[in-house]
Design goal:
Elements: H1 10-27, H2 44-67, H3 77-87, H4 92-111, E1 119-124, E2 127-132, H5 134-150, H6 162-176, E3 179-188, E4 191-198, E5 206-210, H7 212-219
Parallel strand pairs: 3-5
Antiparallel strand pairs: 1-2, 3-4
């Protein structure tokens, strides 16, 4: 299957969301990169270094799959965290340049994939799992969109295209199901998008109808808590 024929359009979603992130990074003054992010204890430099390292890790997954090998995204949890901490201390311009290079390298690797329906071994910090190649795209889309908001440079979930928001809401529902203690039907502006299932709840699903940006903020724990919404497992 050629990348341009991918039915879900995930490649284009990744491209568009990455372009938005790049615009934000290039609008930052190098001295702004050291400012706090939305993530406790992390500066913008931490977030951007993590995004760059994630792109490099996903590139390794793609290259490993193409060569018939299982290449890990990261050597270890400790190594991943140490690389982020060290990378965040670099000058702001270097951090942005690293993000640009990592994004470009991953984009080139993505265009080289000829069979997105194939399965491969994802060797991540949580251990090896066999997953479809399309999970590379879903993982990158999730990282770029959510951490773009975490950069705390005025970008909001509402600034993303509706198809990107719906894709990430479906992705979040899959991540929460079936470990959630509540079953929830997720609707965006009255249109059904996904359902969070539960193995413990015998109640009918609760309907949550929100605009797209608010929905994604709630699901990812990036908005103020609301007592009128059902409890979900922690994001992460």
């Amino acid at each position: 299957m050629e990348p341009s024929e991918l039915p879900s359009g995930l490649i284009d979603m990744v491209r568009r969301s990455t372009a938005r992130l790049t615009d934000t990074l290039h609008a930052l003054h190098p001295s702004d990169v050291g400012a706090p992010s939305r993530l406790p204890g992390w500066s913008r430099g931490h977030v951007l270094t993590h995004l760059a390292n994630n792109a490099e890790g996903l590139t390794r997954l793609i290259l490993g799959s193409q060569s018939g090998r299982s290449l890990p995204m990261y050597a270890s949890v400790e190594g991943r965290n140490a690389d982020i901490a060290a990378g965040a201390t670099r000058p702001g311009g270097v951090i942005v340049a690293h993000a640009d290079l990592a994004n470009s390298t991953l984009a080139a690797a993505i265009t080289s994939v000829s069979d997105w329906e194939a399965s491969t071994v994802f060797a991540t910090v949580t251990g090896p799992t066999e997953r479809p190649m399309t999970d590379v795209l879903r993982m990158r889309l999730r990282e770029v969109v959510i951490h773009h908001v975490d950069v705390a440079a005025s970008h909001r979930f509402d600034d993303e295209d509706p198809d990107v928001i719906r894709e990430l809401v479906r992705d979040a529902a899959g991540r929460f199901s079936p470990k959630s203690t509540n079953a929830v039907d997720l609707q965006i502006d009255g249109a059904a998008v996904a359902t969070i299932t539960s193995e413990v709840s015998t109640e009918s699903p609760v309907v949550v109808d929100l605009d797209g940006g608010t929905m994604l903020g709630w699901l990812t724990g990036r908005c103020d808590s609301r007592s009128d919404l059902p409890e979900l497992p922690p994001w992460g």
